[in-house]
Specification:
By secondary structure, the protein is mainly beta.
C-alpha cells in the first residue's frame, strides 16, 4: 500500500455415469493431459457486462471515512460474497461494511456499528431477478469494522455459512437453512484478534470437515504517523514497511461446532502482511496448497506435506517476488490453470507501476514469472488491482482475467499525476496462454471509474454466462450482468460431497471435449476479501457436450461421467461405499 511507485528487493439433460472408483490420493489429476486449441482462430465475442445494480433494487454505500490522518484502515475495505442462502437455486448477495471512527482516533479504539448505514447487508434474490434487503431478518447486521467474507458449509448440513473478518475480531454465522443466521463465534472459538482480511475454507486434513485459514494484515493501531511530504495535500497512506507483520489464524474444525487453533502445529504461523488467499494443488500430489498475497514483502506459497504440515516455499518455487527479485504490493490473488495444461497457475494484483504478477506453473514445483511474456505486465503497468478472478466470460474454453481496480491513495493524482485513484474494471481476454486487453472494446462498465476493491463471480441469472459483483471503497457496489453475445456452450457443476466436505471444496474437476481438456479446483475463495459461487463452471467453446467429466474428490475418491450434454447445470454427488452409483440430477 502507500505510494504506487514502490519496488522493493524481495479453476437439465442426460448424463451417463460411467464409473465411480474409491481410490487414494492420485499423483496427477484425472485423465491425460490435452490442452484445448487456441481461441485465436475463433471470432471474438465482444464483451458486454451491464451494471444492473439499480434495476436489481440494491442500494448500498460502503462506510469508509477518509481522514486528514490518512489511516491505513480507511482505504482497504471491503469484500462481497455470492452464494445461495436458502437452497432455492438462486445466488444471493452479502456485502461487508465498515463502521464509524473520528479524525483523529485514539489508539486502542475498535470501531462499532452504530446505525443502519454501518450494517453489513444481506440481499435475497427473488424469482424476477431483483434483490430484497433481508439484513434485519437474516441476523447479519454485523459488528465492528468489517473487511472480508468467506463462504462454505462448515458443518455439512447442506446450508452455506458465513465467516466475516474485521479489524478487532471476526464473526462466524451458522446458516439456519432459511437465510437466517446464528452468531456462533464464541462457541466456535474463532473470534481471533488484530486486523483480519481475506479467509478461505479448506479441508486441511481431508476428514470431510472444512477448516479455516484467515489472513491478517499488519500489527496496526490508530497512531498518528505522518507519511509522505510535509506539505498541504501530499500526506500519504503509510507504507506497510512502517508496521510489523503478523501471523495468520488457522482453525481446525473439530466436528462439534468448535474449532482449534493449529497455525503453529501445521507450520502456517509465519508472520505475514497478508491480504489475499487462494487454494489449489499446484504439484498434483493430491493435497491442496495455499498461496498468500503479501503486501510489500515476499509472497507465500505453503506446500502441504504428506503428514499434513506445511512448508513455505515461495522463494524456492519462484513465486515470492517478481522477475527482478523485487517485492510488490500483493493484494488480490487467484490460483487456477489459465493455459489448460492441467497445472494451476497464479495471478497476484498490486499497485500501479509494479505490474500484476502472473506465475506460470513449470510442472516441476517451480513457476515462471510470465507477466511480460503473457501480456499481463504491459496491460497492467499503470493500474492498481485488487479482487481478481480467472473467468471464461465468453465460454470459449479459456479462462480470461477480470480485475477490480483503483488506487489506495485518494490523493495519488496530486502526488503522481500519471496514475488514477478511480479506475475501470479490467478485462483481459485469454487467447491461448497470452492475454489481450479487451476493456477498451467492451461495453460501458469498462469505461466507468470506481475505487474497486472486492470482486465475486457467479452465474447470478443462471444463463450460463458468469456475472460479477464489484465492491468499492467508500462507494456503491456494482452488480455486473454478463450479456456477451456468444455462440459458445457451457456446463455448470454443483458438487455434493458425502465422504468429502459437502461443498466439494478442493476437488479437482477435469472436463474433456473434442477441443481439448480443462481443469478447475472447486473453491469459494481467491480474489480480495471476497467469496464466489461454489459451483464449478466450464466454457465448452463450439462443443455441444463433454465427452467426459472426471472428479478427484478431497477424500481421494475418483468419479467419471461420460457424454454429458452442454448448456445445463448438473448436480454430481460423491460416490459412497453404500451407494456406488450416486444420483446425478439437473
Amino acid at each position: 500500500m502507500g505510494l504506487g511507485i514502490r519496488l522493493h528487493s524481495f479453476i437439465g439433460a442426460a448424463a451417463l455415469l460411467a464409473g465411480a472408483l474409491a481410490a487414494g490420493p492420485q499423483s496427477t489429476p484425472p485423465g491425460s493431459q490435452h490442452a484445448a486449441p487456441s481461441p485465436s482462430s475463433q471470432a471474438m465475442a465482444s464483451p458486454r457486462f451491464v451494471d444492473i445494480t439499480e434495476k436489481a433494487g440494491v442500494h448500498f454505500q460502503h462506510q469508509a471515512l477518509h481522514t486528514s490522518r490518512k489511516y491505513l484502515l480507511e482505504t482497504m475495505g471491503s469484500g462481497v460474497a455470492l452464494f445461495d442462502c436458502d437452497n432455492d437455486g438462486r445466488l444471493d448477495l452479502f456485502v461487508v461494511n465498515g463502521a464509524p471512527y473520528t479524525d483523529p482516533t485514539s489508539p486502542g479504539f475498535i470501531p462499532q456499528k452504530k446505525s443502519p448505514q454501518d450494517w453489513n447487508r444481506m440481499y435475497h434474490q427473488k424469482q424476477d431477478g431483483s434483490f430484497e434487503d433481508i439484513t434485519e431478518k437474516s441476523g447479519l447486521k454485523g459488528v465492528g469494522y468489517g473487511m472480508g467474507v468467506a463462504v462454505a458449509d462448515y458443518d455439512n448440513d447442506g446450508n452455506e455459512d458465513l465467516f466475516v473478518t474485521a479489524y478487532g475480531s471476526n464473526r462466524l454465522y451458522h446458516n439456519n437453512g432459511d437465510c437466517t443466521f446464528t452468531d456462533v463465534t464464541e462457541k466456535a472459538g474463532v473470534a481471533g484478534s488484530g486486523w483480519s482480511t481475506s479467509a478461505t475454507w479448506i479441508d486441511l486434513d481431508n476428514d470431510g470437515l472444512l477448516d479455516l485459514v484467515v489472513d491478517r494484515y499488519v500489527t496496526w493501531d490508530w497512531n498518528d504517523v505522518w507519511c509522505g511530504e510535509h506539505r498541504e495535500g501530499y500526506r500519504a497512506i503509510c507504507h506497510p514497511d512502517v508496521f510489523p507483520p503478523i501471523a495468520m489464524l488457522v482453525y481446525h474444525n473439530d466436528g462439534n461446532g468448535h474449532f482449534t487453533d493449529v497455525a503453529h502445529k501445521l507450520g502456517l504461523d509465519k508472520p505475514a502482511k497478508a491480504l489475499g488467499i487462494a487454494i489449489a494443488d499446484y504439484d498434483r500430489d493430491g493435497r491442496n496448497d495455499i498461496y498468500v498475497a503479501n503486501d510489500s514483502m515476499p509472497e507465500f506459497l505453503f506446500h502441504q506435506k504428506a503428514d499434513g504440515t506445511f512448508d513455505e516455499v515461495g522463494l524456492e518455487s519462484e513465486t515470492a517476488v517478481n522477475a527482478e527479485g523485487q517485492t510488490y504490493a500483493g493484494m488480490g490473488v487467484d490460483f487456477a490453470d489459465y493455459d489448460n495444461d492441467g497445472w494451476p497457475d497464479i495471478v497476484v494484483t498490486d499497485l500501479a507501476n509494479q505490474r500484476y504478477a502472473l506465475y506460470h506453473n513449470n510442472r516441476d514445483g517451480t513457476f515462471d514469472y510470465a507477466s511480460l511474456a503473457s501480456g499481463v505486465g504491459g496491460i497492467s503497468q499503470l493500474h492498481s488491482g485488487w479482487g481478481a478472478r480467472f473467468v471464461d466470460y465468453d465460454n470459449d474454453g479459456w479462462k480470461d482475467l477480470l480485475i477490480a481496480q483503483g488506487h489506495d491513495m485518494d490523493n495519488i493524482e496530486v502526488v503522481s499525476p500519471q496514475f488514477r485513484y478511480r479506475e475501470p474494471v479490467s478485462l483481459m481476454r485469454n487467447t491461448g496462454g497470452k492475454f489481450v486487453d479487451v476493456s477498451g472494446v467492451s461495453s460501458g462498465i469498462f469505461h466507468d471509474a470506481w475505487v474497486g476493491r472486492g470482486l465475486a463471480i457467479g452465474d447470478i441469472d443462471d444463463d450460463g454466462r458468469i456475472d460479477a459483483v464489484v465492491s468499492t471503497n467508500g462507494g456503491a457496489i456494482h452488480i455486473l450482468r454478463n450479456e456477451t453475445d456468444t455462440p459458445h456452450h457451457w456446463i455448470t457443476l454443483r458438487l455434493v460431497g458425502h465422504k468429502s466436505n459437502r461443498d466439494g471444496i478442493g476437488a479437482v474437476v477435469k472436463v474433456v471435449t473434442n477441443q481439448g481438456s480443462q481443469w478447475v479446483t472447486a473453491t469459494t475463495s481467491g480474489s480480495y476479501l471476497s467469496a464466489g459461487d461454489p459451483r464449478v463452471h466450464f466454457g465448452l467453446g463450439n462443443t455441444s457436450f463433454a465427452s467426459s467429466i472426471e472428479i478427484r474428490w478431497p477424500s481421494g475418491v475418483s468419479q467419471t461421467l461420460t457424454n454429458v450434454k452442454a448448456d445445463q447445470q448438473v448436480q454430481i454427488d460423491e460416490p459412497t461405499g453404500s451407494d456406488p452409483k450416486p444420483a446425478v440430477t439437473r
